[in-house]
């Protein structure tokens, strides 16, 4: 005997209700399975402590202002590369797809197109002919070249081994190998004032949190407002200086010309001199001019004494400077030692720079940038008082991780700043008229 199967008693229901407009529109039994399941879920939530949709945000989320020291130490001591750097570092063995438009190639390697010469199969293109000639000259077959292993990575600076076969054109000079530039071996130069590179993903500020403390948020807003105020003052001052300069130029141009000066006078004097004709006054002034003659012994001795005095004064100045440096050599040594000690302390304590936010460090960029275009300013990510949200449900994301990462590459000196080109220059098209219809002959 088999065990009796437990039968679950459910409310009678009719699942198929094609229409509610007929004679039997309202039936006795309606499917209430979904309603019962929803009520059961709500009862379970009430038993566990209350309905989740009705709970306040304080019971669903916790606000951690201090953080865990273990997680901080683990993040600080552990270096994990970014996902973008891992993707870029990958190298596929499959060659990239060529996007250029080409004619379709047949199985034997001969290009087939829509031209009359290629339809009969007897025409061989020029580039295919050159390839077959190169294979015949090297002594290998096309199958050997196709089956040769191809490397997935290509180093343009690698030294190629010299081929043992004689060159095709021995009277030409051998091709020189490319020279490796020295800058490839140098690390990128950071644009920071202290020379240290910025982290790829920096530590965010406390004032930019979705639910920041009032002190942190107020300090961030005050600092950004001060920056904008100083920038506006500089802009107004520059506009005022430009306006004054323009007014001075207009006033100078509006002044009347001095009397006795005429353009025709200048032109006539220039034309006469160009033609080799000079006036009598010009000839007289030229003849009255004293010509340089031989110097007397007194003049030569005077010039020699002056040169000796200048050289003696210059030498005495150098000796006095050298004596002062010798006297101050101890103080100079102490200054050099102090600067070296401060530099070693900065290099040995990177954690102190990590504590400061990236925005505070980027304020002290060095003046000379990498490239001729300036580094774009970081976007202003400040939330006003009426935009602050007290719950994660109403939170809207701010900022752009791709833009931040791209700007960090420019600030770290890995790429140069470029000016975006929104409208590309189109190639010139010259339209001409064919004259073939005008070439006709009488029969």
Please work out how many helical segments DSSP would assign: 15
Bulk shape = extended
Looking at the chains present, what oligomeric state does this protein adopt?
Answer: single chain
Name the helix and strand elements from N-terminus to C-terminus, one letter apiece. HHHHHHHHHHHHHHH
Backbone CA Rg: 43 Å
Strand count: 0
The description of the largest β-sheet is: none
End-to-end gap? 115 Å
Helix content: 40-55%
Extract low-pLDDT stretches.
106-113, 350-357
- Per DSSP, what share of the residues sits in E-state strands of 2 or more residues? under 5%
The SS-based structural class is mainly alpha
The average pLDDT is 76
Describe the SSE topology.
Layout: H1 33-48, H2 57-60, H3 69-77, H4 83-89, H5 116-119, H6 126-138, H7 142-147, H8 214-254, H9 263-274, H10 280-288, H11 297-327, H12 329-348, H13 351-355, H14 358-362, H15 401-411
Function: May play a role in ribosome biogenesis.
Biased composition (Acidic residues): 262-274, 352-362
Subcellular location: Nucleus, Nucleolus; Nucleus, Nucleoplasm
Provide a compact summary of the structure.
Pfam families: Nop53. By secondary structure, the protein is mainly α. It contains 15 helices and no strands.
């Amino acid at each position: 005997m088999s065990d009796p199967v437990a039968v679950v008693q459910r409310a009678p229901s009719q699942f198929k209700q094609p229409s509610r407009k007929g004679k039997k529109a309202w039936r006795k039994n309606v499917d209430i399975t979904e309603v019962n399941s929803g009520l059961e879920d709500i009862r379970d939530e009430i038993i566990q402590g209350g309905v989740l949709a009705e709970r306040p945000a304080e019971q669903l989320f916790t606000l951690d202002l201090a953080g865990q020291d273990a997680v901080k130490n683990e993040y600080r001591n552990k270096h994990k590369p970014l996902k973008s750097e891992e993707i870029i570092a990958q190298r596929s063995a499959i060659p990239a797809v060529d996007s250029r438009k080409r004619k379709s190639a047949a199985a034997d390697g001969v290009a087939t197109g829509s031209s009359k010469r290629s339809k009969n199969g007897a025409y061989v293109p020029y580039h295919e002919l050159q390839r077959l000639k190169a294979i015949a000259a090297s002594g290998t077959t096309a199958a050997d070249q196709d089956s040769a292993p191809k490397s997935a990575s290509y180093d343009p600076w690698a030294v190629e081994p010299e081929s043992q076969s004689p060159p095709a054109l021995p009277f030409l000079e051998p091709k020189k190998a490319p020279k490796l530039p020295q800058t490839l071996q140098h690390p990128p130069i950071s644009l920071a004032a202290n020379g240290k590179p910025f982290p790829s993903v920096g530590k965010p500020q406390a004032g930019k949190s979705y639910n920041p403390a009032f002190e942190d948020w107020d300090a961030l807003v005050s600092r950004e407002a001060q920056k904008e105020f100083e920038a506006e003052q500089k802009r107004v001052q520059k506009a005022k200086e430009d306006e004054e300069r323009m007014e001075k130029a207009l006033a100078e141009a509006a002044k009347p010309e001095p009397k006795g000066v005429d353009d025709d006078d200048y032109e006539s004097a220039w034309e006469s001199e160009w033609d080799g004709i000079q006036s009598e006054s010009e000839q007289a002034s030229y003849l009255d001019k004293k010509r340089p003659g031989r110097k007397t012994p007194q003049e030569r001795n005077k010039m020699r004494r002056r040169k000796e005095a200048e050289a003696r004064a210059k030498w005495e100045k150098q000796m006095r400077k050298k004596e002062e440096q010798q006297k101050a050599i101890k103080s100079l040594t102490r200054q050099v030692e102090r600067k070296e000690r401060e530099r070693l302390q900065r290099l040995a304590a990177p954690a102190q720079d990590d504590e400061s936010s990236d925005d505070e460090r980027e304020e002290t960029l060095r003046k000379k940038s990498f490239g001729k275009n300036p580094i774009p300013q970081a976007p202003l990510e400040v939330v006003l008082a009426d935009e602050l949200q007290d719950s994660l449900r109403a939170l809207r994301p701010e900022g752009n991780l791709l833009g931040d990462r791209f700007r960090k590459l420019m600030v770290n000196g890995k790429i140069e700043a470029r000016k975006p080109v929104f409208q590309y220059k189109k190639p010139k098209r010259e339209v001409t008229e064919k004259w073939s219809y005008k070439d006709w002959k009488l029969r």
